[in-house]
Amino acid sequence: MEWYRIHRLVERLAAAREGITIDGAMKDWEGFPFIRSRLAATDTSPPVDLALAIAPGKDEILFCLVGDAPAETWIRRWSDVGVDLEVEGRPGEILRLSFGQDAVRANAWEWNRTVSRILRMPGGAVDLSFRACIEGRIRLSPLRAENDGPLSPGFLDTRGASWMRLSVNLREPPPRGKVGPGVRSRWRSGPSAASYLLEPADFSPPWAGPPPDGESAVRCPFFLSGRWLVSQGGREWPTHEDIYAYDFCMTDERGLPVRGEEGDFRNEDSQGWEAEILAPSEGRVGAVSNGREDHPPIPLARLLAEGVGGTQGLANELKVKGPFHWLFVHLRKGSIPLQVEDKVRQGQVVGRVGNSGFSTGPHLHAEFVPCRQEETTSWKSQRDLYWQRPGPTVPLVLEDVLVGLNGAPDDPWVVRLPEWEVRSGYQVSR
Question: What's the pTM?
Fold first, then answer.
């Protein structure tokens, strides 16, 4: 029934998409789900309410961005809209797109590794209209033709992609008269909306098929409360290329992990900071590290270049052996109420989300390894547990979970699944 409901929604929205014209009016978007968010006030601007809807197909994305004033008014107030993809001829309007790499996950790193690259939009690739709202159409074929090279197999080739995401960021210019080093524009993060491709004939969401065979995957309940974004999945760049490991980060309706605006922020500003972590199974503690400091958030590029304190790990970590081995990493200092050889009950609190070790910001890193009969019942504690695995990691399948595409509480694409193989880019909750 869940698959049927989503399929019907795809069919209905695909039919409605055919009637959309890019004229800066909202009448064509009746019935489309809008993702809403409020942007915080700044010293020079009041708070702003925004709503974003998208209608993606295989070769184009249509979108509608609505503010609390006519677009002609607030476009004069903000200099930039979005990031990463520059619309040629309108250097002030920039759009950020993210593709769901379900059938082409092996190429997903092509996008991630060039996330800061500005791609030029050739003429004819974009239609925009600014009236009551900002309405636009982005054609992907000209983008692929213009930007050939390493991006094409992953980001620009949509074969196998099942969803697309559009994020909007608003930037105010520096205060008038202030120029020079250190004077920067101020960014305000707007809504982020994701949708399955509105192609009814080809629609097949990644969770419609069966999860991996039981011998090649670990199955367990979800071990976090609230809605969490899978920010990095198994065998993905930049740090999971050789292992099945999963990073979970709590976000808001903007798709952001921090409260307020991005920039210089503290661990305490993170949505998931100190969230309780639950045991996915019973077992016995094999190794634990609990006394390492949580460092401030750090940009990914700097982390990859410098590490944290010259190390490539050294986080607060917990290893437990039960029906399978599980490893949790980057926990909050002092939050693990366990010692080696302690028994663990399924569902008990085993720690809190932190930012220790090789980490950009508060999140939970999880790995799972099947047990072998010849193994002992515990591990010898190691100085750096992260790099001491008892065997090869395997895919993770979560049981009885809600899976969606957006961080908003009214995400229309949420479904409850009895089993789901964890994949990056999705929101998951119990």
Answer: 0.84
